[in-house]
Every structure is written in structure tokens, then in C-alpha cells.
Amino acid sequence: MPEFNNDSTRAERLVTPTASDRRLPDVSRALTPYDVDRILQRANDGDPRDQARLAMEVLEKDWDIAQAIQTRIAAVGATPWDLHPADDSALATEVAGFCAAALKDASPTATDPDLLGFGGLVRGLMSALLPGYAVAEIVWSDGGAGIQGFQVVPAHHFTFRDGADPLLVTATQPTGVALPPGKFIVFRHNHRPGDVVRSGLIRPLAWLYAFKNLNFKDLLRYTEKFGMPFLIARLDDYAFDQERLRIAAMIRHFASDGGGVFTKSADLELLQPSGNSGDVYFRFLDYCERAINKVILGQTSTSDSRDSNRSTASVHNLIRLDLRSDDCGALAETIERQLLRPLVHYNYGPAAPVPRFCFRCAAEIDRERESRILLNLRQAGYDVAPEAVEAAFGYSLRPAHPATAD
Questions:
Q1: Exposed, middle or buried, 156 (CB in 10 Å: 0-12/13-18/19+)?
Q2: Is the pTM of the predicted complex or chain greater than 0.90?
Q3: Least enclosed by CB within 10 Å: which of 91, 144, 172, 227?
């Protein structure tokens, strides 16, 4: 468990990772639906640590969940952001410029290379998608004059036994210790109202992961039985008594295809369900993949060739725009309230105006589609104003052959 030093010094890490954090057993090993129910029930009681560990482990073991989560996190991490002054005053403009410089200057240093910059903080806070919450420590410069960097504290180190605020569980504080204000960012990704420990996407995904894992094991067994040749040696009674061990050893050296040694009087038949060629397993895996994409990305399409009906812009923008806008809005509000507000307070006082933080998450333009529309309008006899083209594509237009004065 991590060590925690709760003092008033802001220019150091309060949470220190320890080597024991790596030696936790996997809660996802041989996961069954019964295990999923037990983990979720424990989270319902206010202790979501196993649920948070499951959220971390499925990213290491399920490629569909990992791909979809990376897509949704990257959609926010790659979105440009802006800081706007709170009003038109000179002080508000100065504060906004100071905060923007502080966010851009936050980066790993030679003395603490594990610190994250602001981009790493955004991606780290978006890890709240699965467990429902993410906590990051702010490592201030002396006196809060700036930001050295950030560190994300894994979600499985927190409990909510005493209420809605996370308590950090440490070796010396097994029941949890409260986080000091102005030092941590707590991002709650509530995709539905209610208790934060029941709001993470791991809740529906845990069932899909368990069912998919059990089905995949059955697929491997089916492949082993019906996908590879099976060598059988039939011997008479004398050869069976005298040679069966030697022949069995020979069969084992053929490969991992499997085989058996029987007497000629023995009858062995491998029964296969009628009409089943193994497609049922692949259909179920495909169903799980599409369900995972629906839960995480809001739609079931991928960049596979089977989704050729989607436009080029939509394929490259695999997450629904409304979900990305909601992610950006919730994260921007958290950053403004829990990071920019204390930064402004430390440097300009509690009455100074806090700048507005926002992501620029407008819809991506399908330029090919828009160009076809403009061409069709032109061929139909309509004139398209250059201002409309500039607004749609962002190009500055000028006549190819400027008119000359007489």
C-alpha cells in the first residue's frame, strides 16, 4: 500500500508508491459470474477496491475493452483546450495567461521523472471511465507558485465507506485517511446519477468480460478437439500388452495433436453436436465485441471492412460526439474547480477571477461529403458564397485571376 505524509507542505508528493503495490493478486483470475457478483456487492457496501482492480486488470487481458477505452481516452486527450478570462478586466486577462503558462510548464523533471504533465493528467483522469472515479495529486512548486507536475493514484487505493468522498487506504491507515483540500483532483465520471462506486462502466463490462472469457475457453477446447488431427493406434491384445507404452510414447512425440492407444476390440467415438462447426463461439465473441463498443463508445461500428457504410470521417471518429462532448465538459469543470481555483488562490488571492477552461470538441468535418454538396449546388446553378466555403473548410479564398482596373 502507498505511504501517505499528510503535512502542510505543498511542494512535495504526499502519496509515495511502494513495492508492495505490485504484489496484489489478480481478482480477474479464473473470474466467474459468482465472483463478479461478489465484487460488485462489496463495492455497493462502499469498498470498491476489488472493483477498481478488476477495472485495471481487464485492460491487460481483454483486447476489445482495452482498444475501446484507449479510443475514448485518446478522443479527449487529443482535443485542444483553451483558457478564457473570467471577464474583460486586465486582472482576469493576466490570471488566464498565468494559468495557461503554468499548465504548459508542468512536466517531468530530472529529480522526479515519474511526474505527469498536463496531457498526462487529462488521460489519467479519464481513466475514471471504468471504476467511476480517478484521483490525481498536484505537486505544487514552493508556496503554490506553479505546478511541478501530477501523479495519478490508482483507484484501488481508495474506499468510500464513510460517504461520497474517497479515503486513501495506506499501510498505517487501513480504514482510510481523508485527502487534504487543494492538493488532489477527484474526477467523478458519473455516466448516471447516484453513488460514484456504482457509476463506472466496469459494472456492465465485468459481466461481458466473464461470459466472454468462459466462451473463449470453450472455443479453445473445441479447436483442440476438432481443429487438429487425432492419431489413434489400434492394437491386437498381444501388442497392446507388450507394446502399448512404447507406441504411446511415439504418439506423444508426433506433436500436440493428441492421440490414443486402444485394443482392436475397443470402440472410441468423438461426438460432435449436429450442425455446429464452431461458428457459435465466434458469433458470441463478435456479439461481446459489439456490446463492449456500444457500452464504451456509444455505437457498435469499428474501422473493420464490414462497416463500409460509414463515412471516412465517422470511421476515424469512432466515439459518438455527444459522449466526447460530455467527457470534455465534465473534465473541464473538474479542472477549473479543483486545479485552477487553488492555483489562482495561491498566487492572486481568493477574490481573483478564475479563468474558464474548455475543450474545443466540435464535430469533425467530412470534407469529401461537403465538397460533393458544394459541387452539386454549383452544377444546379446556384452560386456558393466564398464565405460559406471558408466557414465550412477553414480555407481563405481569393480569385485565381484578380480583375485588373481599366
A1: buried
A2: no
A3: 172
